[in-house]
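User: Run a structure prediction on this.
Assistant: Running it now.
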Amino acid sequence: MEKTTMNKYIFLFAVILSSASCFAQNNIVTREDAKGMAKEYYDRADNDYAFGKLELADSLLHLAVKEKENFIDAWLLIGQINLEFLRNYDVALAAFQKSKLLKADYTGDIDHQIGRCEMHLADYASAKIHLTSFLHQ
């Protein structure tokens, strides 16, 4: 095989592989389509959350996202629990940022939640950006 033909095949293979990788990264897992241990952990966490067992729910949600890193509903619930109840604002901020990275338009208030975390962390410049973005939706 000629060297130029071989290079074309290698280039084509690389393009196909990178396209498949990009597609896989945009594929999110929701509570409706989660499977396996990730779903089990999420369902248990959701139940514990409902009964006020917030630390346990948070731990289970971290196990869920360890199983499926793109489990967007688990990231959002981690953010909510840590922002509203546990007051771990840095954890909440990281969870909301991960959710936004996975799918920015999954929930309409993600910039509001990020801005609230940043306010609690005294990052007022970033909070202003996110809260302004939320208000201009």
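Residues 17-24 have pLDDT under 50 and may be disordered.
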